[in-house]
Design brief:
Blueprint (H helix, E strand, L loop, with lengths): L5 E4 L5 H12 L3 E6 L3 H13 L4 E5 L8 H16 L4 E6 L14 H22 L3 E10 L12 H21 L5 E7 L10 H4 L1 H9 L13 H7 L11 E4 L6
Parallel strand pairs: 1-2, 1-4, 2-3, 4-5, 5-6, 6-7
Helix pairs in contact: 1-2, 1-8, 4-5
């Protein structure tokens, strides 16, 4: 029913997700992005993708609400039929997330549960339900963090969820191999976006410290990440599977 490859990027209305979506379009893929609350920002991303000559859809999704996933995928199916003349998609990028910078001793159960729902339970069951609409031979890209390898104070809960995603990635690759679905995880270093209140972007002390601890001498930018995600969603990466790929410029070596 479809010809062009299609990628679904959660949290694609801003920051890293926006750059991922645009880079995927530059690789010739049609793109579905999700947004939590900023429909206006999502619409701008759709317009930018369409200016690149690709088709795009924006749908609302809160990845913390796993009970909404069945309805989401029914909405997605109808939207793909209408916009793409497709009933399957090829690549899933589990990008949506929030940050938390709180010491281990001060992290509350509510904060912890929220991070579990968004960064682990959400992607776990969202991916499970996505499989019925995914074509064989496609791929899944999960998102981790450099903080799963090195430790900086304040990220114990956040990095623990990402470490769980790194472990899950290996199991997904193992179990979905029969469908030729590749599963990899990308771990960005510190990136200058509005993530975690823009602490890396807007705090000169934080920015300078990270740059001093990075082999390439600067913090990361959104466009350092999107091109790697797009690569993993092409045939150029057809033999890359079950890998953790850190994209940090050599942070904390």
């Amino acid at each position: 029913m479809k010809q062009n490859k299609i990628a679904l990027v959660t949290g694609g209305s801003r920051g890293l997700g926006k750059d991922m979506a645009i880079n995927l379009a530059k690789k010739g893929l049609d793109v579905v992005i999700t947004y939590n609350s900023r429909s206006d920002e999502a619409a701008k991303v759709v317009e930018e993708i369409e200016r690149l000559g690709r088709n795009a859809i924006a749908l609302q999704l809160n990845v913390a609400e796993s009970g909404s996933f069945d309805d989401f995928f029914e909405t997605l199916l109808q939207a793909m039929k209408q916009k793409f003349n497709a009933d399957k998609f090829d690549f899933l990028v589990n990008n949506a997330g929030v940050g938390l910078t709180t010491p281990f001793t001060d992290t509350t159960e509510a904060q912890f549960d929220n991070l579990v729902n968004i960064h682990f339970k959400g992607p776990y069951f969202f991916t499970q339900k996505a499989l019925k609409l995914m074509d064989d031979g496609g791929g899944i890209v999960n998102i981790s963090t450099g903080l799963a390898r090195f430790a900086l104070p304040g990220y114990s809960a956040y990095s623990s969820m990402k470490a769980a995603m790194e472990n899950l990635t290996k199991y997904q690759a193992k179990e979905l191999g029969a469908r030729r679905i590749r599963v990899n995880i990308v771990a960005p270093g510190a990136i200058a976006t509005d993530f975690s209140g823009g602490v890396v972007r807007d705090n000169p002390q934080v920015n300078g410290y990270i740059a001093s601890q990075t082999a390439l001498g600067r913090v990361g930018h959104a466009d350092d990440i999107g091109s790697v995600i797009a690569f993993l969603c092409t045939d150029d990466a057809k033999w890359v599977n079950a890998q953790r790929i850190e994209v940090s410029g050599g942070q904390m070596l």
